[in-house]
Amino acid sequence: MEARLGRYILYRLAQVIPLVFGVIVVTFLIIHLAPGDPVLALVGNFPAPEEYVTRLRQDLGLDKSLPVQLLHYLRKVAQGDLGYSFAQRRPVLNIIFERMGATLLLAGTAWLLAAVLGVAMGILSSLRQYSLVDHATTVAALIGFSVPVFWLGQLLMLIFSVGLGWLPPQGMQSIREEYTGLRYYLDIGAHLILPALALSTRFLAINARLTRSSMLDALGREFITTARAKGLPELRVILHHGLRNALLPVVTVMGLNVGFLFAGSALVETVFGWPGVGRLLFDSISTRDYPILLGIFVVVALAVIIANLLTDLAYAVLDPRIRYK
Amino acid sequence: MKKALLRRLGLCLGGAVLVALAFAGEVIAQQPRRGGTVVAVIDTDPPSLNVAITNGATENRVAGTIFSGLIWIDLKWQPQPYLAESWTVTPDSRTYTFRLRRNVKWHDGKPFTSADVKFTFDEILAKYHPTSKAAFAHVSSVETPDLYTVVVRMKEPFAPFLPLLSVWSAPILPKHLYEGTDIFKNPYNLRPVGTGPFKFQDWSRGDRIVVVRNDDYFEPGQPYLDKIIFKMIPDVHARAIALETGQVDYIQDYFFGKDAYPRLSRLKDLVFQPDGDVPGNELLVFNVRKPPLSERKVRQAIAYAIDRRLIIERVHAGLGAPARSAIDSRLSWAYNPQVDYQKQYAYDPAKANALLDEAGFPRKADGSRFTLRVTFDIRRAGFLPIAEIFRDQLRAVGIQLQLEGVERSVMVDKVYINWDFDMTIQNLTTGGDPAIGIQRIYICKDVRKAPFVNASGYCNKEVDDLFEKGASLTTLTGRAEAYKKVQVILASDLPSLVLTEQGILDVARDRVKGMWQSRLAYSFWSPVWVAKD
Amino acid sequence: MLFSTRASVTSDTPQGGQLAGAEDPGIHEKGGWGTDRAVGRRLRVFWRRFSRSRSAVLGLGVVFFFTLVTLVATWVAPHDPTALIAQPFISPGPRYPLGTDNLGRDVLSGVVYGARVSLAVGFLAAATSTLIGVIVGAISGYLGGVTDALLMRLTELFQVLPRFFLALLVVALAGPGIGKIVFVIAILSWPPMARLVRAEFLSLREREFVEAARALGVATPTIIFRDILPNALPSVIVAGSLDIAQAILLEAGLSFFGLGDPNLTSWGGMLNNALAFLRTAWWMPTFPGLGIFLTVLGFNLLGDGLNDALNPRLRSR
Fold it and tell me: How many structural domains does chain A have?
């Protein structure tokens, strides 16, 4: 079992390299073949001297042919180097990591919120099928699943920040004050609430619905009936037998959520001015910062791949019947 | 010549007295107070803070507090002493002699001298600066007879040379940190060392840049503020909300989404200030290389068909004014009052229809004459609604308009590099002088594949000569005469239709005092202070 | 979208498809939805099951309503949505039921025409991605072996590409245009469908009626498209209807970033335009936002209803 699990992990890891390679090649080509000149995007709103433009082009390595640039980039990535940002002239890896913290905080909070609340709502409504709670959950989940995240974010901001003044509308930290210690974290927490709420809604809805339906499914199965017949305590039946089986699809979807969370966070970050990767991407498109764009795709794709891998492992732990290839 | 200087000094003194009188009441009540922080808005991380190799807007708003130029620009557009405490110009306008202040130190403690000025002029501005490179092309030599004297000799006179020496286009860099290094990769581009009122303190990416008071600033007692925080808020609407909720104190014109103005103007604790920046224009550039826009009558018809007041009212919340001429009327010495597009091309669809018929583009069975594309930067505030107004109004005269809103870099590529456009909406600064910001849109030499020059392809020898005169004559009246003539030609040829004289509007909380004493107010922070809350 | 049907087949686990390879004898038979009479009977069964759920019927109603609006937009809309017909910022009233926007355009007309863009993008993108997904999944699942391995690697590649980021990038760089938007959404949305169809095929190809066809020497394409595909269709229809909702949201997201086609009035574009006036003209963001929300809700309800009716074993009771 252990050895097989180990081999399975190795097998999955071996798949990562061609995937990352593919991601790089695809995004590299899209970025470089698109119309527009990154050098001209870097100069201000005035005709730039030719010396400056030529100089920049050389500096950025954009005077070489496309295949040479691609090979050069691949070689660097293989050494763990994502290159230098055109606009900021600092290592891309540093820039992305600075922003990744903010995105992970936002997306992680939203993910947790969705996992805990969603699963709880799902269990609750599956246990009280057709009750008021169940109907409320169903309706809320449908709404949460259909509402555009950016629209929701704006509504939340208008109500709770601009209207009621309870929570800060923008950014990750207070602008004026410089808090330390506990207040520093509380300050970030206050800024986190609205964007995390907006971002989590959709995933919360997915988790709630999925938990509900797979709980109902599991609770209707024979082994539950058997367990109940054996006189096991109801809570144990629900949690151990019901939930454990019901969680399988939920875990899968939560693993998949990771990719969607990044996408959603781009929208939420824009609405709330959250200094994360999504915003970095949007800013970097207009400045044509190729290395940052590529870097973001590589890092996010890696994150998704790792999340998928972890999902499968979680699956393995939850469902010991799985046999690995 | 000396007289001119004296007169200028006199004017300046007179102005100062007036200003002093006007504010006397307030000044007695409220003395500038030391201490406090101002939070100013910027959009996003600038590429660097070395403003000697770029004139990017964000860089300038931040680094203008850190660096200094030889002069600053007062509200009357006159150069005033800054790092240079005085200067003389020979009558032929070929030699400028600057006397530098002696008590100036770089933020790292090293003394500031004429060597820094020469180094910056010769090695950086003349080679790389987008705006002043053209000006320094007229310079034949920069000499430093002693530590505090700089002599600049010109190959030929260049009228707007002095006003270009402000921090906006000629910030002085420290020679001791830049000499012999790769200017583009110098680490001090990211933690700049200047001579200005504020010192660079911290830059958290994607969040804020902080500058703090320079206690060794050469103006005794100033600056008043402890700190300026430049807070990045990329979303233009979020900036207005941040001001409303009291999180920020100041939004400079460039970062201020004017559509929030009607709402904000109802708030009591905000002050609005026009004219804190160099005038800029929105214009519709025609590609005159191919029909139908190669026909002057078609271009004139479009001018008649577009109601430019509607742009001011519905897109710019009533701020600014419809343009009157190729040269912004706010550059009053150069503007020709005989030319007024609002009269010459007053909104008149019937006239537009007649001109189009005359030009040989009759309406087809479906009522349309031809289709045009308008290309613009989709992220530039206001351009999309302007294009939408065009679409509606041109439809009325039988012109179908396709909107091509693209990213800025794609726009530059299409419009300025490949000339692949019919019309384009642009927003260009006058630079404060026709020779700096306006002639580039019209002269033959600037029909070249480079951004923000003459994309229309218009080339007219007479226009070239007049702009040439305007840039090199040494008297203001002589210059003005040339510019007045050129406006008449451009008003009839219309290679570009200037749409608006853009309203300039800064907004700040009223606790911020002492701002807006310069035309480049955003780089003039030393006299700014904040009232106690 | 990722409710029951696809949850089980997204991960590369060995029992992928176990849930989705439904075994309801009522629908999955040799020849699928064969003769006319059989079709009629099945449709009646389907409708009975479908109409049992009020929410499913509601979803169908909403979708039907917006489709109708789309078809008759030219007659229903009081004005050309791009025309400046009145003063700006007139609040909703008898003359302009949903008010006018910042330029003085009629919001109701914008919402009506916006339905067109949303639905067109939704349908076209979902149809294209479904087509790609079905072809890839069918070939992969039926042929297996090296073809399967290669196609699945390709699918994985497209699945780990950050979808929204890439859409944003491509549309920003290539310039907006409704065709490009449809293409980008489709090309980035097909992998889940491919996996779903592959899983169905994996289980269906071992079934007796397929083996019988093979033994009779029926050509492979015929087996794929005539024998197996109709049996996989219920899952495809369910997933496809949910894909429409996703495509509508994605288009709205792109337009919200100002990357929609400026030559067409779209809900996302109207929302983007309304950003500056959230507080002064509540009707500007409210109605287009509501449009997106209701349409997406409609397709989600419809998808759920179809799921319950077509794959009864998975019904969420």
Answer: 1
Interface test with A, best of C4, C8, C12, C13 (most A CBs within 10 A): C13
Q: What's the CATH code of the domain at B108?
A: 3.90.76.10
State the chains in contact with A (3 or more Cβ–Cβ pairs under 8 Å): B, C
- For A59-72, how does the pLDDT look when each residue is reduced to its tens digit (9 = 90+)? 788 888 888 889 98
Judge whether A315 is closer than 8 Å to chain C, CB to CB.
yes
* Chain B closest-CA separation from residue C118 CA (Å): 19
Q: What is the ipTM of this complex?
A: 0.82
Mean pLDDT of C95-102: 94
- Look up the pTM and report it: 0.84
Residue at C10 is within a domain = no
Q: Which chains touch B (3 or more CB pairs under 8 A)?
A: A, C
Interface probe for C, chosen from A5, A130, A253 (most Cβ of C below 10 Å), is A253
Mean pLDDT of A40-64: 74
Which of A19, A285, A304 lies at the smallest CB-CB distance from C172? A285
* Type of residue at A165: G
Mean pLDDT confidence for B420-441: 92
Kindly report, residue by residue over A190-206, the tens digit of the pLDDT: 888 889 999 999 889 98
- Over residues C19-75, the pLDDT tens digits come to 333 333 344 444 444 556 777 787 888 788 888 878 889 999 999 999 999 889 888
In a domain, B62, yes or no: no
Q: Which of B251, B263, B314 to mutate to test the interface with C (most CBs of C within 10 A)?
A: B314
Rounded distance between C-alpha atoms, residue B170 and residue B347, angstroms: 42
Partners of residue C19 in chain A, C-beta under 8 Å = 249
Say if B250 falls within a structural domain: yes
Query: Contact at 8 Å (CB) between A43 and B415?
Result: no
CATH number of the domain bearing residue B22 = 3.40.190.10
Average pLDDT score, chain B: 89
* Beta-ladder partners of B376: B405
Question: Domain limits at B32?
Answer: 2-51+197-277+504-530
For residue A136, what is the domain's CATH number?
1.10.3720.10
Tell me if A85 is assigned to some domain.
no
List of chain A residues whose C-beta atoms are within 8 Å of the C-beta of residue B435: none
Q: How far apart are CA A240 and CA A250, in angstroms?
A: 15
What 3-state DSSP class applies to B40? strand
> What backbone phi and psi angles, to 5 degrees, belong to C234?
-55, -45
Do the Cβ atoms of C10 and A162 come within 8 Å? Answer: no
Mapping DSSP to helix (H, G, I), strand (E, B) and coil, where does residue A116 land? helix
Q: Nearest residue of B to residue C280 by CA position?
A: B263
Sheet holding B250-251, edge to edge: B198-204, B208-213, B227-232, B37-42, B250-251, B505-509, B270-274
Cα–Cα distance for residue pair A213/C316, rounded to 1 Å: 5
Q: Is residue B377 part of a domain?
A: yes
- Closest CB from C88, C173, C277 relative to B410: C173
User: Does any domain span residue A323?
Assistant: no
Q: Would residue C255 count as lying in a domain?
A: yes
Kindly report which listed range (B14-18, B76-80, B94-98, B435-439) carries the lowest average pLDDT score.
Answer: B14-18
Look at residue A23 and tell me if it is in a domain: no
